[in-house]
Amino acid sequence: MPDDALSPSAKDAPGLFPAPPMAEQERMVEAILFACAAPQSLSQITARLPQGCDAAEALAHLRTRYQGRGVHLVRVGDAYAMRTAPDLGWLMQSERVETRKLSRAAIETLAIIAYHQPVTRAEIEEIRGVAVSRGTVDQLMEMEWIRLGRRRMTPGRPVTFVVTDEFLDHFGLESARDLPGLKELREAGLLDSRPMPGMAAREDDEEDDSPQTGQSELFED
Amino acid sequence: MPDDALSPSAKDAPGLFPAPPMAEQERMVEAILFACAAPQSLSQITARLPQGCDAAEALAHLRTRYQGRGVHLVRVGDAYAMRTAPDLGWLMQSERVETRKLSRAAIETLAIIAYHQPVTRAEIEEIRGVAVSRGTVDQLMEMEWIRLGRRRMTPGRPVTFVVTDEFLDHFGLESARDLPGLKELREAGLLDSRPMPGMAAREDDEEDDSPQTGQSELFED
Amino acid sequence: MSDEWEETETVAARREAEALIIDVDGFEGPLDLLLTLSRTQKIDLRRISVLALAEQYLGFIERARSLRIELAADYLVMAAWLAFLKSRLLLPPDPTEEGPSGEELAAHLAYQLERLQAMREAAARLMGRDQKGRDFFMRGAPEALAVTRKTQFEASLLDLMRAYARLRTRDDFRPYAFDRSDIYPYEAALARLSSLLPGASDWTSLQAWLPEGWRGAPNRQRSAMASTFAATLELAKQGQIELRQSDTFAPLHLRRKSDL
Q1: Which pTM value belongs to this model?
Q2: Do both A33 and A61 map to the same domain?
Q3: Of A98, A112, A139, the CB nearest to C149
Q4: Residues B186, B193: Cα–Cα separation, whole Å
Q5: φ and ψ at A40, to 5 degrees?
Q6: What's the domain range around B123?
Q7: Tens of pLDDT along B77-133?
Q8: Is C135 on the interface with A (CB under 8 A)?
Q9: Which of A69, A184, A192, C230 is the Cys-Cys partner for A180 at CB 3.0 to 4.6 Å?
Q10: Residues 6+ apart with CB under 8 A from B92
């Protein structure tokens, strides 16, 4: 907002309506400073307030009100902002979390584990059609989204993977069996690819129950 | 933010030290909530505070302190956040974020999910008398206003939809039971799943298997 | 009847047709249409005359039909159901008839309308609430909780489900590969037919021309029949053979063209 938004005449002209009481002006300034991303100058604040308000006085009241609180009203150059009280800075000293999208390999591996658990590495590779790199599995394990399940009682006794409670928590699921089946994905419009014409019905019947069968082992005992 | 994101100092603080006075705890919670845009759960707040602090009590004090101010402490599901007072929204016109315009179908679907949750796709279609179009559910999920609930324990085990904490936050609701007019709708029987006369009473199965989850049960405690 | 009157009538009819088209487009299904029609009764939905409503709806559909407006199947299904309901409501109850009474069905329809109306109102009230980012705001300058950096990988449930859907539907697009062992190629049929042609001066059914070992199993026979038939067409086109069929779907007969 330009600083000259308020022409002198507008400022001096007696408002059509009386200015709100000072307590109300203080509330307004409080809301503005809270919601604005950048510090606000006196003229910027004034421009936002109704006619006849005294931003400087409201700021002074607000500053007093926040004295000794967990948050202070501070002056930044010519502008004003709310900031954490310096003595509480250590509360913010937690880890800075940078979020990054999971790789396609990782999300696909995770999806297969979620839908087919408990599932072996060989089975994941069979479904994806490519080898699963060690790094992918390690990453998912480190994120605590997957863990080792029971060994499969087949030759070689391969380890299996299952999803964790942490996974369910992150994805807002109550259990892995709440994941929708293929038919439901399609109905919800979540499938990018359309089935071949004429094949839809038959294919749906077949595929719909396959996630269930994969998980029955885990849940039905 | 993970729950275990304990700041180093809090982690190291031995239980030997007495917890800070309540006024100090209140300041700390104030600083934390001002610093975070997303609502913070009680356990997230507790994890940041020194040992022995009572986050719940500090929150209660803080809530009272901000009553009638330009900024409020609000509850969102199981979490807490600071938000500007709704009557001052007009001051922040330049901060407004344009949300995607929702279609009438999407708005109705959202309302049905909120009032009837957990609700299946078939039930939404029965209420609206028309198929839920591809993309409607998708859009609401992408906006993070709805998520998958527990599967219904009826034949076919259909997935259900429920509203999210983000939905509550967006519409300024503490919980789904604060939805406007919910009680009246329930008393008028308009939230019952009433089957078409002569159709199999699906209702009975539902009530056996999905206790305590329905909106209608929210009031029976 | 003056021309002028006729003129105004057609204009009126056209207007009406237009209004109807617009209306049909504006409705979200038959229940929505019924709800709108019910408003003309100007009474509480709980005391609505379902019979009158059914007649209104059927009248609407009739008008749409006479104006040759295409209606989605849903609307016609509802029309059929309402016609059934109307007859149940009008005729004295048949004691031998099973199932719910007309009154029960009518009550349920009224309930459905009331519920839809209630959800509409609830939706409007919901959207009328103060909304985040419009009426109230979160902290505009959240403070960076900085110091140690840690990468957290993000993925939404939607990403997960899409990844799975992508994997599971990949097979749809795999080129269709069939088992060659049960396929009798056209080239083989043509070569075989050509070589046998000199001895075919009498009418012989197409069936008899199938090679040994291709007459038993249905899928093998089907393949051989198809390619042999295609080969006869080619030979007939070349003028080497004649084809004869006594009736539709009757066996096809062929012989060498005699004047060759």
Answers
A1: 0.62
A2: yes
A3: A98
A4: 11
A5: -110, 135
A6: 104-205
A7: 989 999 999 999 889 887 787 777 888 899 999 999 999 999 999 999 999 988 887
A8: no
A9: A184
A10: A31, A32, A35, A36, B84, C137
